[in-house]
Amino acid sequence: MTERTFHPPQRTLMGPGPSDVSPRVLEAMCRPTIGHLDPVFVAMMDELKGMLQYAFQTNNQMTMPVSAPGSAGMESCFANLVEAGDQVVVAQNGVFGGRMKENVERCGGTAIMVEDEWGTAIDLNKVEDALKANPDAKVLAFVHAETSTGAQSDAKGLAELARKYNCLSIADTVTSLGGTPLLVDEWGLDAVYSGTQKCLSCTPGLSPVTFSERALEHIKGRETKVQSWFLDLNLVMGYWGEGAKRAYHHTAPINALYALHESLLILKEEGLENSWARHKHYHMALRAGLEALGLEFVVAEADRLPQLNAVKIPEGIADAVVRGKLLNDYSLEIGAGLGPMAGKVWRIGLMGHAANAKNVRLCLSALDNVLSGLGAGHSRGAAIEAAEKVLSAG
How far apart are CA 91 and CA 143, in angstroms? Predict the structure, then answer.
C-alpha cells in the first residue's frame, strides 16, 4: 500500500461528540504557528481566558484550557483536590460517574458511591444521606450532563449540598458548557471541567477548567505533592497566570488554542443565552420528529438534555445496521449506547454548530428512510411534518 495525503469524508456529526466544527474554527487552525511564549500569543491567551470565564459564567482567575482532552480536565480536578486517604462522595448515574470513581481510587482516595438508575437525574436526597453518613468526606463529585444517557442533574442543588457539609464540589460539564445553563459562580461550584468538541464546536483535544478560590486554597494546603507533574496547578499557573511574563511549563498546542479562541468568539457573538435557546429550539423540533417515528426517549422530559437525545431502539431493529446505513448512505453519524445501554439506545447529538434546522431535517429524513426500509411501522413523512411545525413556530 502506498501512503498518500489523507482526505477525510465530509460527515454530519450528530453523535455524542465530536460535533460539527465551524468553518471559522477550521480556518483559525490554519493560521501561522508562533511561539508559545511570544507576546502576541500571550495576549491571545488572556483574551481566551476572559471568554472562557464568560462561557463558564465565572470570575475565577484559575480558568484555562488544559492541553489535553476532557478526560485530562477530569484528572486535573481529581489529582489536585484528592490526596491519599481522602473520602470522596461520587454520584453516579451513567458511564462518566464511573470514571470519577476510577480517578478517586487512582489518587489513593476512597470513593463513596451514590448510584442512581441510568437515564435519571442524581437524587439529591440520596446524596445528602451519604454526606451525613460520611462527615469526613472532603469532596462531592458529580456529572452535570451525563453524556451516556442524556440526563441532566441539578448542579446548583448538588453544589449547595457540598457547601452545607463542608465539601468541595467537582462537576463534569463536558456536554453542558455552551449548550445548557451553567452558572459556576452563582451556583457555587468549586472545580469544573469540560471539553471543546461538544457545544463549543471546536476540535477535540482541549479541556476548559475553572477552579474557585476555595479549591485553590485547598490545593495550596495539600500535605503531599500533586501526583501528576503535568497537571499540577501550582506549576501550570506559572504559564496560564496573569500578566505578560510567563514561565515555561509545556509547549502549548498553539493552533488548537487559535481554534478555541475562535469558537469562544463565535459563542460570545451569538450570546450565551441565545446559544442555550437555540439548542432548546432545535431539540424540540428533533424531539417532535423522533416521537413521530415512534421512538421513545430514555430520559424524562424534566431531566432531559436538549443537546444529547437518547432514544430507545425499536424492537426488532438492529442497532449497528441502522448506524451503518446512516453513515454509509447519508454520511451522518449518530452514537451507540454505552455500558448497559449498548445495543439498546441511540444517542443523537445537537451540539454547537450542528444544532440547526438543516441537520434536524437530515437526521429525521434519513432515519425515516432507513427504518422504513427495515420494516418499522411508522407513518412515512410524519417525522419531517412534525418537526416543521416546531421549526416554523420558532
Answer: 8
Tell me the backbone φ, ψ of residue 82, rounded to 5 degrees. Answer: -115, 130
**Mind listing the pLDDT tens digit for each residue in 295-313?**
999 999 999 999 999 999 9
Alpha-carbon span 61 to 179, nearest angstrom: 23
Grid cell at residue 28: 483559525
Average pLDDT estimate for 256-263: 98
Per-residue pLDDT tens over the stretch 68-121 = 999 999 999 999 999 999 999 999 999 999 999 999 999 999 999 999 999 999
In angstroms, what CA-CA distances link 186 with 156, 160, 241, 261, 368?
8, 11, 24, 24, 43
Q: How far apart are CA 140 and CA 137, in angstroms?
A: 8
* Cα 136 to Cα 220: distance, rounded to the nearest angstrom: 20
Determine the straight-line distance between the first and last CA of the chain, rounded to whole angstroms: 52
**Please, are residues 58 and 210 in contact by the beta-carbon 8 Å criterion?**
yes
> Are 308 and 394 a contacting pair, CB within 8 Å?
no
Distance CA(198)–CA(342), nearest Å, equals 21
- CA pair distance 131, 112, nearest whole angstrom: 9
Q: Is 361 annotated as a binding residue?
A: no
SS3 19: coil
Domains and CATH numbers, the chain: 23-268 (3.40.640.10), 272-393 (3.90.1150.10)
Instruction: Classify residue 357 as left (phi > 0), alpha (psi -120 to 50) or beta.
Output: alpha
pLDDT digits (tens, 9 = 90+) for 232-247: 998 988 888 766 567 8
Q: Please check whether residue 15 is in contact with residue 331, taking contact to mean a CB–CB distance below 8 angstroms.
A: no
pLDDT tens, position by position, 42-59: 999 999 999 999 999 999
Instruction: List, in order, residues 6 or more apart from 58 with CB less than 8 Å away.
Output: 184, 185, 210
pLDDT tens, position by position, 156-186? 999 999 999 999 999 999 999 999 999 999 9
Q: CA-CA distance, 249 to 12, in Å (whole number)? A: 37
